[in-house]
Amino acid sequence: MNKxxxxxxxxxxxxxxxxxxTSPEDADFILLNTCAVREHAEKRVIGRLNxxxxxxxxxxxxxxxxxxxxxxxxxxxxxHPTVDFLAPPDSYRNLANWMKSEKKGLIPEVKDEEYNDIxxxxxxxxxxxxxxxxxxxxxxxCIVPYTRGKIRSRPPDDIIKxxxxxxxxxxxxxxLLGQNINAYRYKGIDFPEILKRVASIGGIKRLSFLTSHxxxxxxxxFSVMANSDNITNxxxxxxxxxxxxILKRMNRRYALRDYIDIISxxxxxxxxLTLTTDLIVGFPGEEEDDYQKTLTAVKxxxxxxxxxxxxxxxKRTLANLFPDQVEEALKKARLQRLIEVQNRITEEKVKxxxxxxxxVLVVGDAKRGGKLGKxxxxxxxxxxxxxxxxxxxxxxxxxxxGRVPIGVIKKEV
Length: 413
Hints:
- The protein is of the alpha/beta class.
- It folds into 3 domains: 2-106, Methylthiotransferase, N-terminal domain (Rossmann fold, 3-Layer(aba) Sandwich), CATH 3.40.50; 126-351, pyruvate-formate lyase- activating enzyme; 357-412, CATH 2.40.50.140.
- The protein has helices spanning 2-15, 39-51, 53-58, 69-73, 95-101, 144-148, 156-168, 191-199, 221-226, 244-249, 256-269, 288-301, 328-351; strands spanning 29-34, 63-68, 85-87, 105-106, 126-130, 132-133, 152-153, 173-177, 185-186, 189-190, 206-210, 234-236, 274-281, 305-310, 357-365, 371-375, 380-384, 392-401, 404-412.
- The chain has a 5-stranded mixed barrel with strand order 15-16-17-19-18.
- The longest helix is centred in the last third of the chain and has 24 residues, at 328-351.
- The protein starts with a helix and ends with a strand.
């Protein structure tokens, strides 16, 4: 979502005759788009702000703005010696005029902002497209409802207009975005319906979405995914914990059995489903038994990949007030063990791809040579040989590098 918001900002500033430069030293304005989900992200921003002191010393007229969730959550950032203004997530329409006037302080937000009429400039094969903003679920560990506000669903016509613009501009892969994307509702149109409408736009070869909540999976979502040629059979469904007791304390509103039932239905319709998740260890009150239940769930479910984190205290959230915080050393130890378990599962699942042929969309250049591609299940594939970005190929997997499958082109589709 932050990458998408950065694209919104870049588009709006370009229309106001601002020009992008290649280095901070050449800039009149430096903007840091920030995330407040975890403490680690905040520390990186503070470190980056500290590193800008030299630029401000050499060029005192350089204006630095902190934008995004930290600007909403931590107002005292305005007192940092390098910070001139703060721009929360719903203030970007006011950003250009604020920068031109060289004002300082907190930019006011626009109530229930959706950025509907912004057609993002995109010159890449892949693009993000936000269809909702905000979240109404106050999970006890999460700062998002406080920084992003209540959920707002964009009008379908605006979504289709943006998707068509992206497609006509050469985009072949679109990822629909929402903090809780399955909760999309607009005048009787739900998420599976808007998903079908975007999928029907010509030129889009891969369509996926982030992020789902187990509480809001529509009954017909998986049939829509399974019956479409260009909707990837990929589902990112955060579990967070394998312990029902901890899930209740997290205010997640589902039990492990509910989660397993959901993915069983998905696998039945999409046997090649790529399933990824989010997991938190060391949540307040997590006992060894709770942690073991998470490990057991991870082994039983067999995620293709997981994003794993040690619990991070967030001000204003309910979990921040819980007295039974888990000590840091224990959180780190539990996280390391979980990572090791999941990495082994990921490696085993990737091995099953050896020798298989699959259709792959080339989306970019790989860092160490070859091309980067995505198959119909949203899995990253490294392609050896000459391939054109934006084209589809039948690829045979003949090697595995760590946890990444590597393939050779058999023919162009």
